[in-house]
Amino acid sequence: MLQTSSFGSEDCLHLNIWVPHGRHVSSNLPVMIWLYGGGFMVGGSMGPNFLNNYLYSGQEIADRGNVIVVSVGYRVGVLGFLSTGDSQLPGNYGLWDQHAAIAWVNRNIRSFGGDPDSITIFGESAGGASVSFQTLSPHNKGLFKRAISQSGVAFCPWAMNRNPRKVAEQVCHC
Questions:
Q1: Is the model more confident about 165 or about 76?
Q2: CA angle 28, 31, 35 (to 5 degrees)
Q3: 51 within a domain of the structure (yes/no)
Q4: Would the pLDDT of 64 be above 50?
Q5: What is the DSSP string of 85-130?
Q6: Which parts of the sequence belong to the Carboxylesterase type B domain (predicted)?
Q7: Is pLDDT at 1 greater than 50 in this prediction?
Q8: Structure pTM?
Q9: Residue 8 lies in a domain
């Protein structure tokens, strides 16, 4: 699918953190970092993210699972994934945003009662593919212990742009 218009915003690099109700900060709870789907073209972590509806409640997951839940914002569409396939426009900025958020959570989650040695990243669709890509990156070594990819992995045909130069030229009308 070719996206020729830009959705989202570069002002999206936010985290939402939910802790189970009634827990003390020193609980040392496991942590789950959510990466949303949306075909790498749409989505968000700051409210309704699919058909103007909330698909998942971080608070509900935190309370039921007795875990800390973190949702991560990252750039999507051309702002996050446009590439020419070379060093001029390498792309994957959305994946780098995810990595930066994962690293931040690892460094700071103790302040919210989380255990940095018990972090799971999880996502569905493009978020699941993102989880798969994050597990393959050497930059994430030691930042999380577990990964759950739902309905998407790095090897899905839609997860990789096999001809980035052509797509970039179409987007730029070159």
A1: 76
A2: 165
A3: yes
A4: yes
A5: SSTTS---HHHHHHHHHHHHHHHHGGGGTEEEEEEEEEEETHHHHH
A6: 8-172
A7: no
A8: 0.84
A9: no
Reported residue count of the chain is 174
Q: In this structure, is residue 5 part of a structural domain?
A: no
**Domain contains 79:** yes
Contact 96, 133 (CB under 8 A): no
For residues 53 and 163, the model is more confident at 163
Q: List the CATH number of the domain containing 76.
A: 3.40.50.1820
Q: How far is CA 117 from the centre of its chain?
A: 19
Please give the structure tokens belonging to residue 137: 């990156």
Among residues 122, 102, 111, 118, which one has the least CA distance to residue 29? 118
Number of domains observed in the structure of the chain: 1
d(CA 82, CA 53): 27
Rounded distance between C-alpha atoms, residue 154 and residue 147, angstroms:
13
Q: What is the pLDDT of residues 3-56, one digit of tens each?
A: 555 555 666 788 999 999 987 666 799 999 999 887 777 766 665 554 455 566
As given in the structure block, the two tokens for residue 111 are 């302040």
Residues contacting residue 32 through CB under 8 Å, at least 6 positions apart: 61, 65, 67, 68, 69, 70, 119, 120, 121, 122
CB 83 within 8 A of CB 168: yes
